[in-house]
Protein backbone atom coordinates (compact mmCIF):
# COMPACT_ATOMS: atom_id res chain seq x y z
CA UNK A 1 0.00 0.00 0.00
CA UNK A 2 1.36 3.35 -0.97
CA UNK A 3 0.15 6.56 0.54
CA UNK A 4 0.88 10.15 -0.15
CA UNK A 5 3.92 11.26 1.85
CA UNK A 6 3.55 13.66 4.77
CA UNK A 7 -0.06 13.20 5.60
CA UNK A 8 -1.51 16.56 6.39
CA UNK A 9 -2.55 17.23 9.96
CA UNK A 10 -6.00 18.53 9.04
CA UNK A 11 -6.80 15.10 7.69
CA UNK A 12 -5.92 13.64 11.10
CA UNK A 13 -7.92 16.30 12.93
CA UNK A 14 -11.13 15.62 11.01
CA UNK A 15 -10.73 11.90 11.59
CA UNK A 16 -10.05 12.47 15.31
CA UNK A 17 -13.23 14.59 15.45
CA UNK A 18 -15.30 11.81 13.88
CA UNK A 19 -13.90 8.90 15.86
CA UNK A 20 -15.51 8.45 19.25
CA UNK A 21 -13.56 8.30 22.49
CA UNK A 22 -12.12 4.90 23.42
CA UNK A 23 -13.24 3.20 20.22
CA UNK A 24 -11.48 0.39 18.34
CA UNK A 25 -9.95 1.50 15.07
CA UNK A 26 -8.20 -0.22 12.20
CA UNK A 27 -6.11 1.93 9.85
CA UNK A 28 -5.53 0.44 6.41
CA UNK A 29 -2.24 1.56 4.89
CA UNK A 30 -1.04 3.04 8.19
CA UNK A 31 2.30 4.32 6.85
CA UNK A 32 4.48 5.10 9.91
CA UNK A 33 1.57 4.77 12.33
CA UNK A 34 1.15 8.52 12.92
CA UNK A 35 -2.63 8.49 12.60
CA UNK A 36 -3.09 5.57 14.99
CA UNK A 37 -0.76 7.30 17.42
CA UNK A 38 -2.63 10.60 17.04
CA UNK A 39 -5.96 8.88 17.71
CA UNK A 40 -4.54 6.99 20.70
CA UNK A 41 -3.33 10.24 22.21
CA UNK A 42 -6.30 12.47 21.42
CA UNK A 43 -9.19 9.96 21.51
CA UNK A 44 -7.76 7.12 23.60
CA UNK A 45 -8.61 4.66 20.88
CA UNK A 46 -7.35 1.10 20.73
CA UNK A 47 -5.90 0.80 17.30
CA UNK A 48 -4.12 -1.41 14.83
CA UNK A 49 -2.50 -0.41 11.56
CA UNK A 50 -2.09 -2.51 8.46
CA UNK A 51 0.91 -1.86 6.26
CA UNK A 52 2.59 -3.90 3.55
CA UNK A 53 5.88 -2.03 3.24
CA UNK A 54 8.55 -3.31 5.63
CA UNK A 55 10.27 0.04 6.19
CA UNK A 56 6.91 1.54 7.16
CA UNK A 57 6.19 -1.41 9.41
CA UNK A 58 9.50 -0.74 11.17
CA UNK A 59 8.62 2.97 11.44
CA UNK A 60 5.24 2.02 12.93
CA UNK A 61 6.95 -0.28 15.44
CA UNK A 62 9.28 2.57 16.34
CA UNK A 63 6.17 4.72 16.89
CA UNK A 64 4.95 2.11 19.36
CA UNK A 65 1.71 1.28 17.58
CA UNK A 66 0.25 -2.14 16.80
CA UNK A 67 1.09 -2.79 13.19
CA UNK A 68 0.28 -5.86 11.11
CA UNK A 69 2.25 -6.46 7.95
CA UNK A 70 -0.30 -7.55 5.37
CA UNK A 71 -1.29 -6.81 1.82
CA UNK A 72 -4.69 -5.13 1.45
CA UNK A 73 -5.36 -6.56 -1.97
CA UNK A 74 -5.93 -9.86 -0.14
CA UNK A 75 -8.86 -8.25 1.67
CA UNK A 76 -9.58 -8.35 5.37
CA UNK A 77 -10.63 -11.99 5.59
CA UNK A 78 -8.87 -12.61 8.91
CA UNK A 79 -10.99 -9.99 10.67
CA UNK A 80 -14.41 -10.69 12.13
CA UNK A 81 -17.62 -8.87 11.25
CA UNK A 82 -17.93 -5.69 13.30
CA UNK A 83 -14.60 -6.25 15.04
CA UNK A 84 -13.84 -2.51 14.90
CA UNK A 85 -15.82 0.64 15.46
CA UNK A 86 -14.03 2.35 12.60
CA UNK A 87 -12.00 1.08 9.70
CA UNK A 88 -10.01 3.97 8.28
CA UNK A 89 -8.30 4.39 4.98
CA UNK A 90 -6.55 7.72 4.82
CA UNK A 91 -5.39 8.91 1.39
CA UNK A 92 -5.08 5.35 0.09
CA UNK A 93 -8.41 4.47 -1.50
CA UNK A 94 -7.20 5.74 -4.88
CA UNK A 95 -4.23 3.36 -4.66
CA UNK A 96 -6.33 0.20 -4.22
CA UNK A 97 -7.39 -1.66 -7.33
CA UNK A 98 -10.40 -3.41 -5.83
CA UNK A 99 -12.28 -0.28 -4.68
CA UNK A 100 -15.70 -1.90 -4.30
CA UNK A 101 -14.27 -4.93 -2.55
CA UNK A 102 -12.30 -2.95 -0.01
CA UNK A 103 -15.23 -0.63 0.77
CA UNK A 104 -17.45 -3.65 1.38
CA UNK A 105 -14.78 -5.23 3.58
CA UNK A 106 -14.29 -2.02 5.56
CA UNK A 107 -18.00 -1.90 6.33
CA UNK A 108 -18.07 -5.58 7.20
CA UNK A 109 -15.18 -5.37 9.68
CA UNK A 110 -16.04 -1.86 10.90
CA UNK A 111 -19.28 -0.49 12.22
CA UNK A 112 -18.33 2.58 10.24
CA UNK A 113 -15.67 3.40 7.68
CA UNK A 114 -13.67 6.58 7.23
CA UNK A 115 -12.00 7.26 3.90
CA UNK A 116 -10.11 10.20 2.50
CA UNK A 117 -8.85 10.66 -1.02
CA UNK A 118 -7.65 13.35 -3.42
CA UNK A 119 -10.58 14.78 -5.39
CA UNK A 120 -9.79 14.58 -9.08
CA UNK A 121 -12.68 16.99 -9.71
CA UNK A 122 -10.76 19.85 -8.06
CA UNK A 123 -10.87 22.90 -10.33
CA UNK A 124 -7.12 23.18 -10.69
CA UNK A 125 -7.02 19.57 -11.89
CA UNK A 126 -9.80 20.39 -14.35
CA UNK A 127 -7.77 23.35 -15.62
CA UNK A 128 -4.72 21.17 -15.99
CA UNK A 129 -6.62 18.53 -17.96
CA UNK A 130 -8.21 21.30 -20.02
CA UNK A 131 -4.71 22.48 -20.86
CA UNK A 132 -3.92 18.98 -21.95
CA UNK A 133 -1.81 17.78 -19.00
CA UNK A 134 -2.49 15.36 -16.12
CA UNK A 135 -2.71 17.24 -12.81
CA UNK A 136 0.25 17.41 -10.43
CA UNK A 137 -0.25 19.21 -7.08
CA UNK A 138 0.31 18.95 -3.32
CA UNK A 139 -2.50 16.43 -3.07
CA UNK A 140 -1.45 14.66 -6.28
CA UNK A 141 2.31 14.93 -6.10
CA UNK A 142 3.12 12.26 -8.70
CA UNK A 143 3.68 12.23 -12.41
CA UNK A 144 1.36 9.99 -14.44
CA UNK A 145 4.19 7.52 -15.02
CA UNK A 146 5.20 7.04 -11.39
CA UNK A 147 1.98 7.47 -9.47
CA UNK A 148 0.95 4.74 -7.06
CA UNK A 149 -2.65 5.77 -7.70
CA UNK A 150 -4.65 3.35 -9.80
CA UNK A 151 -8.16 4.80 -9.49
CA UNK A 152 -9.01 8.35 -10.57
CA UNK A 153 -12.36 9.64 -9.32
CA UNK A 154 -14.18 12.72 -8.11
CA UNK A 155 -16.32 13.28 -5.04
CA UNK A 156 -19.40 13.05 -7.27
CA UNK A 157 -18.19 9.69 -8.63
CA UNK A 158 -17.58 8.40 -5.14
CA UNK A 159 -20.99 9.47 -3.86
CA UNK A 160 -22.66 7.80 -6.80
CA UNK A 161 -20.84 4.54 -6.01
CA UNK A 162 -21.94 4.79 -2.37
CA UNK A 163 -25.54 5.24 -3.46
CA UNK A 164 -25.38 2.30 -5.86
CA UNK A 165 -23.88 0.02 -3.23
CA UNK A 166 -26.14 1.06 -0.37
CA UNK A 167 -23.38 2.80 1.57
CA UNK A 168 -24.63 5.69 3.73
CA UNK A 169 -22.63 8.90 3.84
CA UNK A 170 -22.82 9.89 7.51
CA UNK A 171 -20.50 12.87 7.34
CA UNK A 172 -18.36 14.62 4.78
CA UNK A 173 -15.53 17.14 4.92
CA UNK A 174 -13.67 18.73 2.05
CA UNK A 175 -10.54 20.83 1.87
CA UNK A 176 -8.75 23.10 -0.55
CA UNK A 177 -5.23 22.16 0.55
CA UNK A 178 -5.64 23.07 4.28
CA UNK A 179 -8.80 25.24 4.14
CA UNK A 180 -12.21 23.65 4.69
CA UNK A 181 -14.56 24.01 1.70
CA UNK A 182 -18.34 24.27 2.19
CA UNK A 183 -19.47 25.42 -1.25
CA UNK A 184 -19.36 23.13 -4.29
CA UNK A 185 -16.66 20.86 -2.86
CA UNK A 186 -16.47 18.70 -5.99
CA UNK A 187 -15.12 21.76 -7.75
CA UNK A 188 -13.31 23.61 -4.97
CA UNK A 189 -11.88 20.84 -2.77
CA UNK A 190 -8.62 19.03 -3.43
CA UNK A 191 -9.15 16.51 -0.64
CA UNK A 192 -12.32 14.75 0.51
CA UNK A 193 -13.09 12.82 3.69
CA UNK A 194 -16.14 10.66 4.28
CA UNK A 195 -17.56 8.89 7.27
CA UNK A 196 -19.58 5.96 5.97
CA UNK A 197 -22.06 3.50 7.42
CA UNK A 198 -23.99 0.48 6.29
CA UNK A 199 -27.41 1.21 4.84
CA UNK B 1 19.35 1.66 11.02
CA UNK B 2 22.25 0.73 13.22
CA UNK B 3 24.75 3.46 13.72
CA UNK B 4 25.23 2.34 17.30
CA UNK B 5 28.16 0.28 18.36
CA UNK B 6 27.20 -3.35 17.95
CA UNK B 7 29.37 -5.31 20.28
CA UNK B 8 29.67 -8.77 21.68
CA UNK B 9 28.73 -9.58 25.24
CA UNK B 10 32.29 -10.94 25.41
CA UNK B 11 33.47 -13.96 27.34
CA UNK B 12 30.65 -15.77 29.08
CA UNK B 13 30.30 -18.84 31.20
CA UNK B 14 27.38 -21.08 32.04
CA UNK B 15 25.92 -21.45 35.51
CA UNK B 16 23.98 -24.30 37.03
CA UNK B 17 20.96 -24.06 39.28
CA UNK B 18 19.94 -27.20 41.19
CA UNK B 19 16.30 -27.77 42.10
CA UNK B 20 15.48 -30.39 44.66
CA UNK B 21 11.72 -29.93 44.68
CA UNK B 22 10.12 -32.41 42.23
CA UNK B 23 8.70 -30.93 39.03
CA UNK B 24 5.24 -32.30 38.21
CA UNK B 25 5.03 -33.20 34.53
CA UNK B 26 2.13 -32.84 32.15
CA UNK B 27 2.48 -36.42 30.94
CA UNK B 28 2.13 -37.63 34.54
CA UNK B 29 4.66 -38.29 37.27
CA UNK B 30 7.40 -35.88 38.08
CA UNK B 31 11.08 -35.24 37.76
CA UNK B 32 12.43 -35.77 41.29
CA UNK B 33 15.29 -33.27 41.15
CA UNK B 34 17.02 -31.51 38.32
CA UNK B 35 19.64 -29.03 37.19
CA UNK B 36 19.10 -26.16 34.81
CA UNK B 37 22.11 -24.74 33.01
CA UNK B 38 21.83 -21.10 32.03
CA UNK B 39 23.74 -18.00 30.98
CA UNK B 40 23.00 -14.34 31.57
CA UNK B 41 24.14 -11.20 29.77
CA UNK B 42 23.80 -7.60 30.90
CA UNK B 43 22.78 -6.47 34.37
CA UNK B 44 19.53 -6.94 36.24
CA UNK B 45 18.34 -3.44 37.17
CA UNK B 46 17.39 -2.34 40.67
CA UNK B 47 13.66 -2.93 40.31
CA UNK B 48 14.26 -6.16 38.38
CA UNK B 49 12.14 -5.01 35.46
CA UNK B 50 14.58 -5.53 32.56
CA UNK B 51 14.85 -9.31 32.34
CA UNK B 52 14.35 -11.00 28.98
CA UNK B 53 14.21 -14.77 28.65
CA UNK B 54 15.40 -16.31 25.38
CA UNK B 55 14.00 -19.78 24.63
CA UNK B 56 15.93 -22.06 22.33
CA UNK B 57 14.78 -24.21 19.43
CA UNK B 58 15.35 -27.90 18.72
CA UNK B 59 19.13 -28.00 18.63
CA UNK B 60 19.89 -24.77 20.52
CA UNK B 61 21.07 -24.30 24.06
CA UNK B 62 21.50 -21.82 26.89
CA UNK B 63 24.52 -20.41 25.02
CA UNK B 64 22.68 -17.57 23.28
CA UNK B 65 25.45 -14.98 22.98
CA UNK B 66 29.11 -14.35 23.61
CA UNK B 67 32.14 -16.61 23.52
CA UNK B 68 33.66 -19.15 25.83
CA UNK B 69 37.13 -18.48 27.14
CA UNK B 70 39.79 -19.60 24.67
CA UNK B 71 37.22 -20.70 22.05
CA UNK B 72 37.04 -18.03 19.34
CA UNK B 73 34.51 -20.02 17.29
CA UNK B 74 32.08 -20.56 20.15
CA UNK B 75 29.70 -17.63 19.47
CA UNK B 76 26.22 -18.20 20.89
CA UNK B 77 23.41 -19.17 18.51
CA UNK B 78 21.73 -15.76 18.61
CA UNK B 79 24.90 -13.69 18.98
CA UNK B 80 23.90 -11.47 16.03
CA UNK B 81 20.78 -10.36 17.95
CA UNK B 82 21.99 -10.15 21.54
CA UNK B 83 24.70 -7.81 22.78
CA UNK B 84 25.52 -4.21 23.59
CA UNK B 85 23.95 -2.01 20.91
CA UNK B 86 22.36 -4.99 19.18
CA UNK B 87 18.58 -5.28 18.67
CA UNK B 88 18.23 -7.10 22.00
CA UNK B 89 20.50 -4.63 23.70
CA UNK B 90 22.32 -5.92 26.77
CA UNK B 91 23.03 -2.33 27.82
CA UNK B 92 19.29 -2.08 28.49
CA UNK B 93 18.17 -5.65 29.17
CA UNK B 94 19.26 -8.49 31.39
CA UNK B 95 19.11 -11.47 29.05
CA UNK B 96 18.80 -15.07 30.19
CA UNK B 97 19.32 -18.22 28.12
CA UNK B 98 18.45 -21.60 29.61
CA UNK B 99 18.89 -25.17 28.37
CA UNK B 100 15.60 -27.08 28.41
CA UNK B 101 15.03 -30.15 30.52
CA UNK B 102 15.60 -33.30 28.49
CA UNK B 103 18.41 -31.50 26.70
CA UNK B 104 21.96 -32.59 26.18
CA UNK B 105 23.89 -29.43 27.02
CA UNK B 106 23.97 -29.59 30.80
CA UNK B 107 20.39 -29.36 32.04
CA UNK B 108 19.04 -32.63 33.35
CA UNK B 109 18.25 -34.95 30.46
CA UNK B 110 18.52 -38.52 29.22
CA UNK B 111 22.33 -38.44 29.53
CA UNK B 112 22.12 -37.47 33.22
CA UNK B 113 22.26 -40.05 35.95
CA UNK B 114 18.93 -41.35 37.17
CA UNK B 115 19.19 -41.15 40.98
CA UNK B 116 17.04 -44.28 41.30
CA UNK B 117 19.45 -46.49 39.33
CA UNK B 118 22.75 -44.63 39.33
CA UNK B 119 22.82 -45.11 35.54
CA UNK B 120 21.98 -42.64 32.76
CA UNK B 121 18.23 -42.03 32.38
CA UNK B 122 18.29 -43.04 28.71
CA UNK B 123 14.90 -44.20 27.52
CA UNK B 124 13.52 -43.92 31.06
CA UNK B 125 13.73 -40.14 31.04
CA UNK B 126 10.15 -38.89 31.39
CA UNK B 127 8.30 -37.15 28.57
CA UNK B 128 8.68 -33.41 28.96
CA UNK B 129 6.41 -30.89 27.26
CA UNK B 130 6.71 -27.23 26.34
CA UNK B 131 4.58 -26.43 29.41
CA UNK B 132 6.95 -28.40 31.66
CA UNK B 133 9.88 -26.41 30.30
CA UNK B 134 8.04 -23.20 31.04
CA UNK B 135 7.30 -24.36 34.59
CA UNK B 136 10.97 -25.16 35.11
CA UNK B 137 11.99 -21.78 33.64
CA UNK B 138 9.58 -20.05 36.03
CA UNK B 139 11.33 -21.70 38.96
CA UNK B 140 14.65 -20.47 37.62
CA UNK B 141 13.19 -16.95 37.45
CA UNK B 142 12.09 -17.32 41.09
CA UNK B 143 15.65 -18.31 41.93
CA UNK B 144 17.03 -15.27 40.11
CA UNK B 145 14.58 -12.99 41.92
CA UNK B 146 12.68 -12.09 38.76
CA UNK B 147 8.96 -11.83 39.37
CA UNK B 148 8.07 -10.47 35.94
CA UNK B 149 9.88 -10.70 32.61
CA UNK B 150 10.02 -7.67 30.34
CA UNK B 151 9.88 -10.14 27.46
CA UNK B 152 10.06 -13.81 26.61
CA UNK B 153 11.13 -14.57 23.07
CA UNK B 154 12.19 -17.40 20.88
CA UNK B 155 12.24 -18.68 17.33
CA UNK B 156 10.60 -21.87 16.10
CA UNK B 157 10.13 -24.19 19.10
CA UNK B 158 11.47 -21.30 21.21
CA UNK B 159 8.60 -19.16 19.94
CA UNK B 160 6.15 -21.80 21.11
CA UNK B 161 7.75 -21.66 24.56
CA UNK B 162 7.37 -17.88 24.56
CA UNK B 163 3.69 -18.30 23.70
CA UNK B 164 3.30 -20.95 26.41
CA UNK B 165 4.85 -18.56 28.94
CA UNK B 166 2.20 -15.92 28.20
CA UNK B 167 -0.54 -18.50 28.81
CA UNK B 168 0.90 -20.30 31.81
CA UNK B 169 2.17 -17.25 33.67
CA UNK B 170 0.23 -14.33 32.15
CA UNK B 171 1.09 -11.99 35.00
CA UNK B 172 4.79 -12.71 34.72
CA UNK B 173 5.30 -11.66 31.06
CA UNK B 174 4.91 -8.14 29.66
CA UNK B 175 5.86 -8.97 26.05
CA UNK B 176 5.69 -12.28 24.23
CA UNK B 177 7.79 -12.40 21.06
CA UNK B 178 7.03 -15.35 18.82
CA UNK B 179 9.33 -15.68 15.82
CA UNK B 180 9.04 -18.14 12.93
CA UNK B 181 6.72 -20.33 14.96
CA UNK B 182 3.15 -21.63 14.87
CA UNK B 183 0.37 -22.13 17.41
CA UNK B 184 0.72 -25.89 16.80
CA UNK B 185 2.41 -28.25 14.38
CA UNK B 186 0.69 -29.15 11.13
CA UNK B 187 0.17 -32.76 10.10
CA UNK B 188 3.07 -32.39 7.68
CA UNK B 189 5.32 -31.04 10.46
CA UNK B 190 4.53 -34.08 12.59
CA UNK B 191 5.12 -36.35 9.61
CA UNK B 192 8.62 -34.96 9.10
CA UNK B 193 9.36 -35.33 12.82
CA UNK B 194 8.20 -38.93 12.71
CA UNK B 195 10.52 -39.77 9.82
CA UNK B 196 13.40 -38.26 11.81
CA UNK B 197 12.44 -40.23 14.91
CA UNK B 198 12.12 -43.46 12.96
CA UNK B 199 15.63 -42.95 11.64
CA UNK B 200 16.89 -42.91 15.24
CA UNK B 201 14.56 -45.55 16.66
CA UNK B 202 15.47 -48.09 13.96
CA UNK B 203 19.22 -47.50 14.18
CA UNK B 204 20.68 -50.79 15.57
CA UNK B 205 22.97 -48.74 17.80
CA UNK B 206 20.00 -47.08 19.53
CA UNK B 207 19.36 -50.08 21.80
CA UNK B 208 15.98 -48.83 22.92
CA UNK B 209 17.53 -45.60 24.12
CA UNK B 210 20.03 -47.25 26.45
CA UNK B 211 23.08 -46.96 24.20
CA UNK B 212 25.23 -45.01 26.66
CA UNK B 213 26.18 -48.03 28.74
CA UNK B 214 27.27 -49.83 25.57
CA UNK B 215 29.55 -47.00 24.60
CA UNK B 216 27.89 -46.50 21.20
CA UNK B 217 25.93 -43.70 19.52
CA UNK B 218 23.13 -44.16 16.95
CA UNK B 219 25.07 -42.05 14.51
CA UNK B 220 23.24 -43.18 11.39
CA UNK B 221 19.86 -42.33 12.87
CA UNK B 222 20.99 -38.92 14.10
CA UNK B 223 22.54 -38.12 10.72
CA UNK B 224 19.37 -38.98 8.86
CA UNK B 225 17.24 -37.09 11.35
CA UNK B 226 19.36 -34.01 10.89
CA UNK B 227 19.46 -34.32 7.12
CA UNK B 228 15.71 -34.41 6.82
CA UNK B 229 15.35 -31.66 9.41
CA UNK B 230 17.80 -29.52 7.54
CA UNK B 231 15.84 -29.79 4.31
CA UNK B 232 12.82 -28.35 6.10
CA UNK B 233 14.87 -25.46 7.52
CA UNK B 234 15.90 -24.24 4.07
CA UNK B 235 13.84 -23.07 1.13
CA UNK B 236 13.86 -24.45 -2.39
CA UNK B 237 15.28 -21.13 -3.62
CA UNK B 238 17.96 -20.95 -0.94
CA UNK B 239 19.14 -24.49 -1.67
CA UNK B 240 19.12 -23.81 -5.38
CA UNK B 241 21.12 -20.59 -4.94
CA UNK B 242 23.63 -22.18 -2.61
CA UNK B 243 24.18 -25.54 -4.29
CA UNK B 244 22.19 -25.74 -7.48
CA UNK B 245 23.03 -28.96 -9.29
CA UNK B 246 26.75 -28.45 -8.78
CA UNK B 247 28.78 -31.66 -8.84
CA UNK B 248 31.82 -32.55 -6.77
CA UNK B 249 33.61 -33.71 -9.91
CA UNK B 250 33.70 -32.32 -13.41
CA UNK B 251 31.74 -35.20 -14.86
CA UNK B 252 29.09 -37.52 -13.41
CA UNK B 253 30.57 -40.58 -11.75
CA UNK B 254 27.43 -42.74 -11.72
CA UNK B 255 27.88 -43.96 -8.16
CA UNK B 256 26.07 -43.66 -4.84
CA UNK B 257 28.81 -41.73 -3.13
CA UNK B 258 28.64 -37.95 -2.89
CA UNK B 259 27.98 -36.55 -6.33
CA UNK B 260 25.95 -33.36 -5.94
CA UNK B 261 27.09 -30.57 -3.61
CA UNK B 262 23.79 -30.71 -1.75
CA UNK B 263 24.52 -34.32 -0.84
CA UNK B 264 27.87 -33.30 0.53
CA UNK B 265 26.30 -30.49 2.52
CA UNK B 266 23.60 -32.67 4.05
CA UNK B 267 26.11 -35.36 5.00
CA UNK B 268 28.37 -32.78 6.55
CA UNK B 269 25.48 -31.30 8.57
CA UNK B 270 24.38 -34.80 9.58
CA UNK B 271 27.84 -35.86 10.72
CA UNK B 272 28.40 -32.65 12.63
CA UNK B 273 25.07 -33.00 14.43
CA UNK B 274 25.62 -36.67 15.26
CA UNK B 275 28.87 -35.65 16.88
CA UNK B 276 27.31 -33.43 19.52
CA UNK B 277 23.61 -34.07 19.85
CA UNK B 278 21.91 -36.75 21.90
CA UNK B 279 19.49 -39.13 20.21
CA UNK B 280 17.12 -39.31 23.18
CA UNK B 281 17.01 -35.52 23.39
CA UNK B 282 16.10 -35.42 19.72
CA UNK B 283 13.23 -37.85 20.26
CA UNK B 284 11.94 -36.05 23.35
CA UNK B 285 12.19 -32.60 21.84
CA UNK B 286 10.44 -33.43 18.58
CA UNK B 287 7.67 -35.09 20.58
CA UNK B 288 7.35 -31.99 22.74
CA UNK B 289 6.90 -30.02 19.52
CA UNK B 290 4.28 -32.46 18.24
CA UNK B 291 2.25 -32.33 21.44
CA UNK B 292 2.29 -28.55 21.75
CA UNK B 293 -1.19 -27.21 21.10
CA UNK B 294 -2.61 -24.64 23.52
CA UNK B 295 -6.00 -24.89 21.79
CA UNK B 296 -6.31 -28.63 22.40
CA UNK B 297 -8.07 -28.19 25.73
CA UNK B 298 -10.42 -25.70 24.08
CA UNK B 299 -11.73 -27.97 21.35
CA UNK B 300 -9.25 -26.48 18.88
CA UNK B 301 -10.44 -22.92 19.52
CA UNK B 302 -7.19 -20.95 19.57
CA UNK B 303 -8.95 -17.69 20.32
CA UNK B 304 -10.46 -19.18 23.48
CA UNK B 305 -7.09 -20.68 24.43
CA UNK B 306 -5.39 -17.29 24.25
CA UNK B 307 -8.04 -15.48 26.30
CA UNK B 308 -5.96 -15.71 29.46
CA UNK B 309 -2.88 -14.05 27.97
CA UNK B 310 -2.29 -10.49 29.12
CA UNK B 311 1.05 -9.69 27.47
CA UNK B 312 1.65 -7.53 24.42
CA UNK B 313 2.86 -9.54 21.44
CA UNK B 314 5.30 -9.31 18.59
CA UNK B 315 4.99 -12.01 15.95
CA UNK B 316 7.29 -12.40 12.96
CA UNK B 317 7.45 -14.84 10.06
CA UNK B 318 9.56 -15.21 6.92
CA UNK B 319 8.26 -15.35 3.37
CA UNK B 320 10.00 -18.58 2.33
CA UNK B 321 9.58 -20.46 5.61
CA UNK B 322 7.53 -23.50 4.67
CA UNK B 323 8.12 -25.33 7.94
CA UNK B 324 6.20 -22.65 9.86
CA UNK B 325 4.80 -20.52 7.08
CA UNK B 326 3.55 -16.92 7.45
CA UNK B 327 0.01 -18.28 7.40
CA UNK B 328 0.65 -20.09 10.68
CA UNK B 329 1.87 -16.90 12.30
CA UNK B 330 -1.17 -15.06 10.97
CA UNK B 331 -3.44 -17.58 12.74
CA UNK B 332 -1.76 -16.63 15.96
CA UNK B 333 -1.91 -12.90 15.20
CA UNK B 334 -5.65 -12.94 14.49
CA UNK B 335 -6.43 -15.07 17.53
CA UNK B 336 -4.56 -12.52 19.66
CA UNK B 337 -6.25 -9.61 17.93
CA UNK B 338 -9.71 -11.16 18.41
CA UNK B 339 -8.86 -11.21 22.12
CA UNK B 340 -8.07 -7.49 22.06
CA UNK B 341 -4.39 -8.06 22.78
CA UNK B 342 -1.87 -5.54 21.61
CA UNK B 343 -0.05 -7.32 18.79
CA UNK B 344 2.31 -6.41 15.97
CA UNK B 345 3.23 -8.66 13.10
CA UNK B 346 6.15 -8.48 10.68
CA UNK B 347 6.29 -10.71 7.61
CA UNK B 348 9.88 -10.47 6.46
CA UNK B 349 11.01 -11.08 2.91
CA UNK B 350 13.80 -13.63 3.09
CA UNK B 351 15.11 -16.36 0.83
CA UNK B 352 16.53 -18.39 3.67
CA UNK B 353 13.44 -20.33 4.74
CA UNK B 354 12.88 -21.31 8.38
CA UNK B 355 16.53 -20.66 9.25
CA UNK B 356 15.93 -16.94 8.59
CA UNK B 357 15.15 -16.35 12.24
CA UNK B 358 18.79 -17.06 13.09
CA UNK B 359 20.22 -14.74 10.42
CA UNK B 360 20.82 -11.02 10.59
CA UNK B 361 18.43 -9.98 7.83
CA UNK B 362 18.52 -6.14 8.11
CA UNK B 363 14.74 -5.65 7.95
CA UNK B 364 14.11 -8.40 10.48
CA UNK B 365 16.64 -6.96 12.89
CA UNK B 366 15.35 -3.41 12.31
CA UNK B 367 11.86 -4.60 13.27
CA UNK B 368 13.16 -6.39 16.37
CA UNK B 369 15.24 -3.38 17.35
CA UNK B 370 12.26 -1.03 17.00
CA UNK B 371 10.06 -3.31 19.10
CA UNK B 372 12.65 -3.77 21.86
CA UNK B 373 13.25 -0.01 22.00
CA UNK B 374 9.63 0.53 23.01
CA UNK B 375 9.70 -2.04 25.81
CA UNK B 376 9.74 -0.05 29.01
CA UNK B 377 11.96 -1.20 31.83
UniProtKB/TrEMBL annotation, chain A:
Domain of life: Bacteria
A Pfam family matched in the record: MetW
CDD domains documented for this protein: AdoMet_MTases (cd02440)
Entry protein name: Methionine biosynthesis protein MetW
Species of the source: Uliginosibacterium paludis
TrEMBL record, chain B:
Class in the EC hierarchy, top level: transferase
Annotated binding of substrate, by residue: 226, 355
Organism: Uliginosibacterium paludis
EC nos: 2.3.1.46
InterPro entries linked to this entry: AB_hydrolase_1 (IPR000073), AB_hydrolase_fold (IPR029058), HAT_MetX-like (IPR008220)
NCBIfam families registered for this protein in UniProt: homoserO_Ac_trn, PRK00175.1
Record's protein name: Homoserine O-succinyltransferase
Family: Belongs to the AB hydrolase superfamily. MetX family.
Catalyzed chemical reaction(s): L-homoserine + succinyl-CoA = O-succinyl-L-homoserine + CoA
Single GO term (MF): homoserine O-acetyltransferase activity
Gene3D superfamilies assigned: 1.10.1740.110, alpha/beta hydrolase
Function: Transfers a succinyl group from succinyl-CoA to L-homoserine, forming succinyl-L-homoserine.
Active site: 156, 321, 354
Compartments where located: Cytoplasm
Entry coiled-coil feature ranges: none
Pathway given in the UniProt record: Amino-acid biosynthesis; L-methionine biosynthesis via de novo pathway; O-succinyl-L-homoserine from L-homoserine: step 1/1
Highest taxon of source: Bacteria
PANTHER family attached to this UniProt entry: HOMOSERINE O-ACETYLTRANSFERASE
Keywords carried by this UniProt record: Acyltransferase, Amino-acid biosynthesis, Cytoplasm, Methionine biosynthesis, Transferase
Gene symbol of the encoding locus: metXS
Subunit note: Homodimer.
